[in-house]
Amino acid sequence: MLFSEELRAHAQPIMTAIHEHPFVRGIATGYVPREALIFYVEQDFQYLSEFIKIYATAITKLTDRTEIKFFANAIDFILNSEIHPHHVFCDVAGVQYEMLQHATPAPKAYLYESHMYRAADTGLLLNILAAFQACPWTYHEIANKQVQEKANNQANPFKGWIDFYAKTDDDSQTTVSDQIFDWIDRLASDATSLQREEAMQFFLKSCELEWQFWEQAFYQQDWKFKKTISSATLKHI
Ligand SMILES: Cc1ncc(CO)c(N)n1
């Protein structure tokens, strides 16, 4: 069994819970509460900005130009393409995207970002890719399933969001997530079983954190002492 198949098999209960999450179901049925959409975009905007920095860290581990290009493309994708699904949510919520670009990470986003940095700190590309893969993989799975359900019909205000994440790489007909699984398999074949176990942990925790990210937005879960934390300044120190 390929390592990527093992990853997917172990993540199945989490993936099922993501498909069934009320936020994700709401995208399919065309209704998500406005507060949830706003909280999501605020958090995702800052989360993706942090992701760019994590990709940049990954680039420092590479020498092969094709591999470097992969991460450079991923950065370009976040900066120039992934703003589109955010605009879809903003349009439905009736808010200006520019208004949602100043948030600080809520607890689960903070945890997810810290988890990614922890993977990067191991210095192993296998861990970085495994931790990162939950991101494109789960979104692609969500969108594909919703396309199969014909949720991306003209009447659905989230059609643009679903179509965006269901898209494949036009030339090769493979998705970014397929390419990453291939890359993970190549690295895993040279790894020890302990290293594979560590990568598995990074992947599964990222999958759970994807579920948590939807949950956090749906219920707008923020720091309990947000005002205290965000009003603190260093002026007395
Ligand atoms: C939290 C999260 N995971 C995955 C994606 C898809 O890239 C995203 N935009 N945000």
UniProtKB/TrEMBL annotation:
Record InterPro entries: Haem_Oase-like_multi-hlx, Thiaminase-2/PQQC, Thiaminase_II, Thiamine_Salvage_TenA
Top-level EC class as recorded in UniProt: hydrolase
Keywords: Hydrolase, Thiamine biosynthesis
SUPFAM superfamilies xrefs: Heme oxygenase-like
Swiss-Prot/TrEMBL catalytic activity: 4-amino-5-aminomethyl-2-methylpyrimidine + H2O = 4-amino-5-hydroxymethyl-2-methylpyrimidine + NH4(+); thiamine + H2O = 5-(2-hydroxyethyl)-4-methylthiazole + 4-amino-5-hydroxymethyl-2-methylpyrimidine + H(+)
The family this protein is said to belong to: Belongs to the TenA family.
Record function comment: Catalyzes an amino-pyrimidine hydrolysis reaction at the C5' of the pyrimidine moiety of thiamine compounds, a reaction that is part of a thiamine salvage pathway.
Subunit annotation: Homotetramer.
Name listed for the protein in its UniProt record: Aminopyrimidine aminohydrolase
Gene that encodes it: tenA
